[in-house]
User: Fold this.
Amino acid sequence: KSEMYETGVVYLAGAGTGNPALITCRCREVLERAEVVVFEPSLSDDLKELFPAGCERIEASPGGGGSGFRTVSGILIDRAEEGKMVVRLFEGDPYHSGSCVEEAKALTREGIPFEVVPGLIEGLSALTFAGIPLHPGGGANGFSVAGYPLAGGKSLKDSAFCALAAEGNTLIFQTRSDLVAKLSSELMAGGVSGATPVAIIE
Assistant:
């Protein structure tokens, strides 16, 4: 939806790739009117320059776990109950963050109106910037995007990703550069050919 609330609302917004020129029009629109911005610690300085000069700036608690979720959720609820327009700014797309889901649930429980503002997903946008098509020559059946390491410490060789690769799907992993060798080894241990084309984008 595209309506603009007047007061007492939270916008769970995605900042996309981190490049201010690539945020959505809707994200820029809500940021321009924000009275409070709650943002990720890793957000770029260039994006922070888009925050209104007089707004309250609050860095979201790092670390992911339950206490962090509750702390951020409490801030969002408190500021909205004061009648303020709050923007909770995430990297990439909001719903690619587990904390966004928890915060949306908390807002729903408290009856706080909120809107989710989508953002570009880094894992897909990086391919476009690098000139790599998701379906090269029509050869790929589909694609999957995942973080690595996998949740719960699960090995890639025991996951569905190896079977997806064998079926001609493109696999996209967001990870640290020092984990690339381990990622590759786990895929090959799961049956993915060592001759499979690969690209590493930093």
